């Protein structure tokens, strides 16, 4: 008996559930492991992750999806079966077996109201959920964000020397990160 790439029973079991899902805006997002992609053969594919991404993007665009974010593509006006089969079809990228041996995550999501559920603008400095800085932040980074249009409700102020938040959590320790002059809050 020859082995099949896709388990027909598994696929058939999914179809009734997919058929009752609403039509609308579906997204497909993916994440690829770096080390199995870039490690030398025989431990990996000895390839750049970008080549895998290009192959995935080619397939998604061919299926009518448009980029929403870096590794997130969406299509409006489709049904769940189409989104599901597109995601499964991604396993056919070149070379064969590359996706199935390097994928960290591949998800399909339904977005009922993009205007409500896309909170990107709300969490950027100056947005409704980030009206002010929550603590010390790199001075030039904040300056550049404000030049690009970020508008916090209160102007950032200098961080006093000896502030307990300097350097911020998970920031490397060096002369620049420990100098309060490099931060505002």
Write up this protein:
The longest helix is centred in the N-terminal third of the chain and has 14 residues, at 49-62. The strands form two sheets. Strands 2-3-1-4 form a four-stranded antiparallel beta sheet. It has a two-stranded antiparallel sheet with strand order 5-6. It is extended, with a radius of gyration of 23 Å. The mean pLDDT is 92. It has helices at residues 8-19, 34-38, 49-62, 80-89, 98-102, 114-117, 120-123, 139-147, and strands at residues 24-32, 66-69, 72-78, 103-111, 137-138, 183-184. With 185 residues, the chain is of the alpha+beta class. The N and C termini lie far apart (67 Å).
Q: For the largest beta sheet, what order do the strands appear in spatially? A: 2-3-1-4
Q: Whole-number radius of gyration? A: 23 Å
Order of helical and strand elements:
HEHHEEHHEHHEHE
Strand content: 15-25%
For the termini, the CA-CA separation is 67 Å
DSSP, total strands: 6
Number of helical stretches of at least 4 residues: 8
**Global mean pLDDT:** 92
**Amount of helix:** 25-40%
- Unreliable stretches, pLDDT < 50, 5 or more residues? none
* Overall body shape: extended
Largest sheet: 4 strands, antiparallel
Structural class: alpha+beta
Key structural traits:
extended; two-stranded antiparallel sheet; 185 residues
Write the layout of secondary structure elements.
Elements: H1 8-19, E1 24-32, H2 34-38, H3 49-62, E2 66-69, E3 72-78, H4 80-89, H5 98-102, E4 103-111, H6 114-117, H7 120-123, E5 137-138, H8 139-147, E6 183-184
Antiparallel strand pairs: 1-3, 1-4, 2-3, 5-6
């Amino acid at each position: 008996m020859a082995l099949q790439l896709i388990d027909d029973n598994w696929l058939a079991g999914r179809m009734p559930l997919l058929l009752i899902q609403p039509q609308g805006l579906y997204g497909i997002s993916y994440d690829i492991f770096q080390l199995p992609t870039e490690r030398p053969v025989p431990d990996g594919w000895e390839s750049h992750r970008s080549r895998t991404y290009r192959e995935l993007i080619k397939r998604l665009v061919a299926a009518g999806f448009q980029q929403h974010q870096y590794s997130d593509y969406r299509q409006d006006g489709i049904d769940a079966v189409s989104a599901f089969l597109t995601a499964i079809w991604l396993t056919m990228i070149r070379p064969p077996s590359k996706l199935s041996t390097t994928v960290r995550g591949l998800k399909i999501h339904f977005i009922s109201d993009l205007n409500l559920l896309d909170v990107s603008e709300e969490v950027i400095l100056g947005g409704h959920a980030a009206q002010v800085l929550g603590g010390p932040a790199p001075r030039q980074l904040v300056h550049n964000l404000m030049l690009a249009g970020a508008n916090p409700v209160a102007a950032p102020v200098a961080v006093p020397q000896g502030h307990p938040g300097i350097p911020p959590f998970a920031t490397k320790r060096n002369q620049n990160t420990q100098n309060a002059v490099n931060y505002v809050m």
